[in-house]
Amino acid sequence: MSAVPTSARAPRIIVRHEIILAAILVVALIGLGRLNDRFLTVDNLLNQGRLMTEVGLIALPMTFVIVTGGIDVSVGAMVGLCAIVLGYSWKNLGFPLPLAIVFSLGVGAAAGLANGLLITRVRVPPIITTIATLTLFRGLAEGISQAHSVRGYPEWFYFLGQGAVFGVPTQLLILLVAIVVFGVALDRTSFGRTLYAIGSNETAARFSALPVDRIKLAAYALSGLMSGLSAFVLVSRVTTTRSDMGMGYELDAIAAVVLGGTSIFGGSGTIWGTVIGLVMIQLLKNGLALTGVKGDATIVVIGVVLIASVLIASSLQRRRE
Amino acid sequence: MSAIALPRAAAARAPLWRRVSSQETLLAAAIIGLAVVVGLINPRFLAANNLADILLGNAYIAVAAIGMSMVIITGNIDISVGALIGVLATVSGSLAVAGAPIAVTWLAPLVLGVAVMGLQGVVVAYLGIPAIVVTLGMLSILRGGLISVTGGKWITDLPDAFHLYDIEIFGVIPMPVAIMAGATILAAAWMRWWPRGRAIYATGGNAEAARLCGVSPRRTLVLVFLLHGFFAGVAALLFATELRVIQSTTPSGLEFTVITASVVGGVSILGGVGTVVGSTLAAILIAEITSALVFINVSPFWTHAVQGALILATVIADIVRRRRRLAGDVR
After folding, report:
1. Is residue B39 part of a domain?
2. If you average pLDDT over residues A196-223, what whole number do you get?
3. Out of B150, B238, B240, B290, which residue is the most buried by the measure of CB atoms under 10 Å away?
């Protein structure tokens, strides 16, 4: 039960997992491409990138949170809350739309910060904190909206969700930038290295005078902020605002992170792994859908892939030990 | 931390004020207090059929929370239970419509529930995969499987004999309430006085210490998941027979409601602490609050916000109280 891999060994295990995953991804791509010639087309792949962005933007900070040994299951509810705040403050409170967008991002960050404060100050375990706030945030979204949806946004608002720059969907570019920023932050900054230190051994990190609470607070606040961004992209793509938006996103995001080789115990994991996990889930969904499997049955496959990948990774690790 | 491994045994010797401030007593007081306050504002809240509705409509949550509490006491969690209840209810209802004997329709969800949860328990205990990952995967499998098999169609034309809700014990106590109370009392007694029941607390409090005392944490964990599956089966049966139709999709968010009942009931995710009496009382309190909102004219769309605030408040109060108590023990 050595939850703390030595620093020399940890990267090798992670690399191994990512390479296996990438190999599976390539095989799956080729297989699905042979089954259906519409699958491996530029148009289809770009479109899948568009659809993948909303969960992707959440999965990046989720990686941070899980690396610290925490979890955030309230992200889907924060997407719902931010979407409603965006629509409501514009339509009902009369905010100019740009201000409404900033306001909803702020609400997202504040919601994430509230999670972080409960976890670091009151010391409520992350899973319990975020299950409680999941209900609260979703409830606030339902209460504020009173089941009314908001439509009729101005044309420019849809650029983010439906537009394209040089043929690439706008939000996919944002996701790519976010991936680079989060990847560099986790791998190359003292902030990122502190995340690993907290996840490996929080007590040791405290004794090393690392700002454990502040870093954790930042990770959860980021999770809220990115949920807000995800809500913005989502509302812009589907052109309407409803309180049930983002429902179940937490499961997709956590699945992508865990599939990508981040240990649920904390202390190891990479953004690149999460990206592979994310792409894999999206392409699996799409590939299966194109070969005639119904949308709901693809969820089954994702569940199987998730459990199988973790089983394989852990048995590989055990053999090495 | 090991000081809180056997909290109830310590509570029995504790001074009066400490026993009075136990989570169970507080919940019971809250249930009665809320009934009085809402009853004063709107007497119709206290009408017998409304109180009966509160109990009948939520008995399945209390029953599911019994198994969930055991799982959480061992320091694990299960987020597949909502989807499992949906699947089991659909299986049971489909069998009933297909004309299977009633005994079969009632036994099938129990057996299937035990099998699915037992499998997850073995993976968690013997392969060392965290419960949150295993049950997350199972949630996907069950949810996706159910919708793709049934297409989300509702099950109707259920035979009359299928409905547990029509049976009353001694002609007064409706079956679901009897099942809820009976299951809670039996499980609570077993966990408090039987060695195997105590082993659940020992495993959750300190697995290594439990192992040294001759308790197998792995076997205890599998046993807990098997029991959790059984209670999920019972809950599914109550869920399936509550109305005359079964909505054959998984009730979304049910797993969180069940976890909420356990946590508000005083079960700690850190393991080793909590009782199923607490979780059942909490399930009743949550149902009561939901109903009370309607009677004091709060828009039903605020229900979840109030529930969320309630969970947060109880969790924070509980942690602060426990910390103070721990400080008191040191003194």
Report:
1. no
2. 94
3. B240
B6 within a domain of the structure (yes/no)? yes
Count of Cβ atoms closer than 10 Å to residue A320 Cβ: 10
pLDDT for the residue numbered B13 = 55
Q: Of A78-87, A307-316, B286-295, which gets the smallest average pLDDT? A: A307-316
* pLDDT tops 70 at residue A55: yes
Give the residue from chain A lying closest to B123, CA to CA: A311
Partner-chain contact B127 A314, CB within 8 Å: yes
Task: Retrieve residue A213's tokens.
Answer: 């609470």
The answer to whether the CB of A246 falls within 8 A of the CB of A73 is no
Residue at A306: amino acid letter: L
Each residue's pLDDT tens digit, B286-315: 999 888 988 888 888 888 888 888 888 888
Residue A7's pLDDT is what?
Answer: 45
In this predicted structure, which of A79-83, A202-206, B169-173 has the lowest mean pLDDT? B169-173
Q: Give the residue among A102, A68, A81, A63 at the shortest CA–CA distance from A197.
A: A68
Report which of B266, B185, B317 is spatially closest to residue B4, judged by C-alpha positions.
B266
Q: Do A125 and B263 touch (CB under 8 A)?
A: no
Supply the pLDDT for residue A311.
Answer: 83
Position of tokens 């999709």?
B249
Tell me the three state secondary structure of residue A38.
coil
Candidates B286, B298, B303, B307; CA nearest to B55 is B286
Between CA A189 and CA A192, with CA A191 as vertex, the angle to 5 degrees is 70
Tell me, yes or no, if B251 comes closer than 8 A to chain A by beta carbon: no
- What is the distance of C-alpha A199 from the center of its chain? 18
List pLDDT tens digits, range A118-151. 999 988 889 889 988 998 999 999 999 988 888 8
pLDDT score of B322: 74
Distance CA B236, CA B218 (A): 27
Give me the residues of B, 292-331, that contact A with CB < 8 A: 299, 301-309, 311-312, 315-316, 319-320
Q: Which of these CATH numbers, 1.10.260, 1.10.3470, 1.10.1740, 1.10.8, describes A12-29+41-315?
A: 1.10.3470
Question: Is some CB atom of chain A closer than 8 A to the CB atom of B267?
Answer: no
Q: Are A70 and A134 in contact (CB under 8 A)?
A: no
Kindly give, in sequence order, each residue whose CB lies less than 8 Å from that of residue B187, ignoring residues fewer than 6 positions away: B66, B70, B227, B231, B276
- DSSP classification of residue A261: T
Provide the CATH number for the domain around residue B200.
Answer: 1.10.3470
| Most B CBs within 10 Å, among A300, A309, A311, A318, to test the B interface | A300
> What are the residues whose beta carbons fall under 8 Å from the beta carbon of B103, sequence distance 6 or more?
none
**How many domains are there within chain B?**
1
Q: Give the pLDDT confidence score for residue B331 in this predicted structure.
A: 45
Alpha-helical (H) ranges within B243-298 are 254-264, 276-295
Query: What is the reported pTM?
Result: 0.84
Cβ neighbours of residue B325 closer than 8 Å, sequence gap 6 or more: B18
Which residue out of B84, B119, B132, B133 would a mutagenesis test of the A interface target, given it has the greatest number of A Cβ atoms within 10 Å? Answer: B133
How high does pLDDT run on average in chain A?
A: 87
Percent of chain A's residues with pLDDT above 90: 50
- Per the structure, the complete domain to which residue B62 belongs is given by 2-11+19-33+44-330
Q: Is B148 near chain A, with CB under 8 Å?
A: yes
Taking 50 as the pLDDT cut, the residues of chain B under it are 1-7, 9-11, 331
**Per-residue 3-state assignment (H helix, E strand, C coil) for A122-150:** HCCCHHHHHHHHHHHHHHHHHHHHCCCCE
